[in-house]
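Known limitations

Files may contain more than one protein. Parsers should not assume a single record per file. Below, a two-record file is shown to illustrate correct handling: read the sequence, read the token line, then continue until end of file.
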Amino acid sequence: MRDLTTGSIPGHLIRLAMPMALGMIFQTMYYLVDLWFVTRLGDAAVAGVSAAGNVQFIVMALTQVLGVGTMPLIANAVGRKDRDDANLVFNQSVVWAFVCAFITLVGGFGLAGAYMQAVGADDATRAAGLDYLYWYLPGLGLQFALVSMGAALRGTGIVKPTMLVQMVTVVMNIVLAPVLIAGWGTDRPLGVAGAGLASSIAIAVAVLLMLVYFVRLEHYVGFRRELLTARWDVLARMLRIGVPPGAEFALMFLFTAVIYFVIRDFGAAAQAGYGIGSRVMQSIFLPAMAVAFSAAPLAGQNMGAGKMERVRDTFRWAAIIGSGLMAVLTLMCQWRPEWFVQGFTEEAAVLAVATEFLRTISWNFVASGLIFTCSGLFQALGNTVPSLISSASRLVTFAGPALILAQRPGFRLRHVWVLSVVTMTLQAAFTLWLLNGEMKRRSTVADA
């Protein structure tokens, strides 16, 4: 356990963010490595895997309920020096990780066909998406165990073990991807199914490594048999914080599904270009996400210790650092967006879509970084409802206009990207206003 209630706030942020960013980069490499090999299978394969990968947002919605419901409660307990409550929350998180994994597998296999039928540009795209998704679902189910253990460590101020595990498993995925997708060394290529299987195997190894760490090396929180039965009062505490961020990711699924729907008439090449561009964009977001994720346990421990001024300083420094990083990345995408995407495809039509997407969408990078930071602070403050309201506002401002634009003569892909930038900027302003109100409310309660 590491005490974050004293010492330099920017120092804590950087110390937490650097290994976390490295771990997130390795985690994202799962998708980029798979994508690189999948692009060799054609536009339909890329479009299918990208559209199927959107299902990840639904799984991430559930993992957010679990992870966000776990981390702040443990961080607050650490700030109060209440080790018993930290262990109770962790073990309850493990119980619900099993439940969520079961829901993911049953729901995924049951609904995958209907989803791909709705968003796939053609039959080949739908078939590729289903092949990938069926083999990736076991890995998605195992994600919950990783999230539970990783959130517990983050709440105690420890991030390096999770990063090291991610590094090991990504290397494994890099090795497995060409073997399973392209058939290197076996002459039995599995295509897009191999991409899903490679990720599932790598995630299974990650879970095993984290279990070994918890059993042998973790001492502040750990598995307690007597605590591994459902406690509804603890679940209520976790849901109160975790459900709104989970619902945010469900909204992200709907948001992305709307995009795939409105651009499907442009064909598989357009969906493939958007798929490549959006995956690269997610990777670019990692610096700001790492800072925001680091701000959450830092502010959470200080919230538990009643140090509101340090909570406010955490937001200021996280916003400054995250916005600075995202501003630099915006300039790079305006200058040479093709650098980020040209390695994934040699098809001019796909590359043109991905490049235009990245050049346009980069104007919302700073706004996205501020939204991530605000989300981390809402978690630390124990009230994530404003963050959900913020995300819902963007779905309202984007989905309706996008569907209307798609029906008008002269509709172009760029219209969707510009609309996304405008609505993200509005969301950032709205989120900052909500956070300012929540901080004032908490300060008034603390002073009273």
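...continuing to the second record:
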Amino acid sequence: MSRGLSSDTAAKCQEKYGKNAIAEGKKKPTLLIFLEQFKDFLVIILIIAALISAFTGDLESFLVIIAVITMNAILGTVQTVKAEKSLSNLKKLSSPTAKVLRDGQTAILPAEEITVGDVVLLEAGDQIPADGRLIDCASLQTNESALTGESTNVEKSMDAISQEVPLADRKNMVYSGGFVTYGRGAFVVTEIGMQTEVGKIASLIQNAEARKTPLQKTLDQFGKRLSMAILIICALVFVLSLVRSDAVNFDSVMSSLMFAIALAVAAIPEALSSIVTIVLSFGTQKMSRENAIMRKLQAVEGLGSVSVICSDKTGTLTQNKMTVRKIVVQDHIIAADDVSPENPEEQELILASVLCNDATYQDGTEIGDPTETALVRFAQTCGLSDAQMRESHARISEIPFDSDRKLMSTLNECGGVRKMYTKGATDVLLDRMTCSEAEKQEIVEQVEELSEQGLRVLCFAAKEFSGEALDISDENDLTYLGLIAEMDPPGRNPSRRLLSAGLRVSSRS
């Protein structure tokens, strides 16, 4: 493996490429946000009317109009600033530190100090701080859901890719914002900061062209048409007033002008902008209580006009946290809440799920594949300590999970007897177990029943083993232990909330 960059070379690269950080878009000052509230066409007409009122000495009308449009501007500014602050709290994808090879030594550095050419070391639980090409890979798996939306772990390799492929198929690359869920590895940094895939997404968001909502377009059209109609009517009234006067002089002109201005002020709905802002603010506050941040007030009205929502499922409609819901032992399907660890068969199944597992779950911190962390969490929920089970059943050998085999096996010391535990896909394990054809058919029917309920099913088997190390050929003649069914629970019933608002939900994983 490379010795990594020297300190001098790293300093030169940092000077050339900059810091490994996502650049924030330029924020508008509060004063500018406040002034932007006066861009509405109706508001401009009102300001003109207020100035004419002040010029003609009608201070009461001037003060009333200014008070109304100022209150409207303050409400809009406060809501916009609150939304900007909420959005800034969402920027938590960057990794705080990383293990880097510098001058041949492993050093823990802040992620923003990583530069192009650095060699970064990865272990299970690490967050990937930059984009790079793998130079070492030992059963490495990563979670790239931040980029691809897929919760399934990606198995990495160092095999060369000879053609252009989509991001999700670049198995020899790792990306900023991803997590290592299994194995270990090392990579050479190729892109940092805004040049990473996450940085490109941030750049697209920052440079996205703002479009007016249907409400804004409707209000603009209404304001222009109403204003033009009012101005035409006021002009006609002014002319008619002059025509009806006995003599055209300064007093008669000013009297006609004041009458026309009074008519304009009365006809223009001064409170329209304020009422719209207040109503939208109520909607925004209600959405915020449901953990939905609305950056623009008008987006509330746009969301209310939605009839179909196409949403990513994992981590959006669901919690992206696999949970054990049911188990199957002795031909019985048992709900997770009804599992009894005192039952020998149920206890054996839980033991197998913990021993044939590389995940850890401690004090709310999960390290490993979500499917495996769910098994460890389930054991703890049943009152069993995964740490004690692993300590009293030491692992001697293992065969890591492989997507081609769809199996994982471990060899453990169980009270003086060596036992091999295997977990994997039911269709693969069925051919490797000593069950009768009738028993296999029953297992298939149970798996189908659980799958129809949206559950992901794992099959477990075991056998006594006398050797020193496991080989793939040993994954045969296994004794069936049972099934464990998991699911990714929905996040606070989002579909029900959407449907209650009259929306048709279309979600795809």
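Parsers that stop after the first record will miss the second one. For reference, the second record is described as follows. Residues 495-509 have pLDDT under 50 and may be disordered.
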